[in-house]
Write a structure and sequence with these properties.
- By secondary structure, this protein is an alpha/beta fold.
- It has 8 helices and 8 strands, in the order E-H-E-H-H-H-E-H-E-H-E-E-E-H-E-H.
- It has one domain: Rossmann fold (3-Layer(aba) Sandwich), CATH 3.40.50.
- Strands 2-3-1-4-8 form a 5-stranded parallel beta sheet, with helices on both faces. A 3-stranded antiparallel beta sheet has the order 6-5-7, with no helix packed on it.
- A hairpin with a 5-residue loop joins strand 5 and strand 6.
- The radius of gyration is 20 Å and the shape is globular.
- The N and C termini lie close together (about 5 Å).
């Protein structure tokens, strides 16, 4: 069983990925892992990718696609399925993945898209705040201070948010991801393999939905 996992930042993709790997014994393949392995092993495409990264440049699609093909063709995937995470990121990469699978005699069986309303994700992702005095970290939803406005550790009252955690920054990041994901959602919907899961519920309930989908196709 070969899968692709989609979801906006904060949707719980990482948690569900772990559960899918544990339950279905597929190999979790993230873009970062592929790049690191290819560069560490100094494969030809790994060396090429490193030349771009070392110069602070984006790795071109053709190099990324070559790294994916190299990884999907490795022996450990001959008997086990894969779960792609972070690839494809655009429609050209999606077409390349289709071609790669055809050349390797594989098929992409399902795309799991974990959906959560952006407003909910803004609350999740922008809830972190930090005590300026001692550096203790809190979250307004999941880990608030015991006494509002007072640090549990040092009793300080001065808190701040990192720029990346501020609501405006988070919203902008989500908007960028939404625009990137929209063509992929359409592409895999038309292919008939897109399965959308409600990510705005308990972790176990989300995974129960995922299991229902995967049990039907494995």
């Amino acid at each position: 069983m070969n899968l692709m996992l989609m979801g906006l930042p904060g949707a719980g993709k990482g948690t569900q990925a772990e559960k899918i790997v544990d339950t279905y014994s597929v190999i979790h393949i993230s873009t970062g892992d592929m790049f690191r392995a290819a560069m560490a092993n100094e494969t030809p495409v790994g060396v090429k990718a490193k030349s771009f990264i070392d110069q602070g440049e984006l790795v071109p699609d053709e190099v990324t696609n070559a790294i994916v093909k190299e990884r999907l063709g490795q022996a450990d995937l001959a008997s086990q399925g894969y779960m792609l995470d972070g690839f494809p990121r655009n429609i050209d990469q999606a077409h390349a993945l289709t071609q790669i699978n055809q050349e390797l005699g594989k098929t992409l069986d399902a795309v799991i898209d974990i959906q959560v309303e952006p407003k909910v994700l803004v609350d999740r992702l922008s809830g972190r705040f930090i005590c300026r005095t001692c550096g203790a970290t809190y979250h307004k939803l999941y880990n608030p201070t015991k006494v509002e406005g007072t640090c549990d550790h040092c009793g300080g009252h001065d808190f701040y948010q990192r720029e990346d955690d501020k609501p405006a920054t988070v919203k902008n990041r989500l908007d960028v991801n939404l625009k990137m994901n929209a063509p992929l959602v359409d592409f895999y919907q038309q292919a008939g393999i897109l399965h959308q899961v409600n990510g705005d519920q308990d972790i176990a309930e989300v995974f129960a939905e995922v299991q229902t989908i995967l049990d039907q196709i494995k």
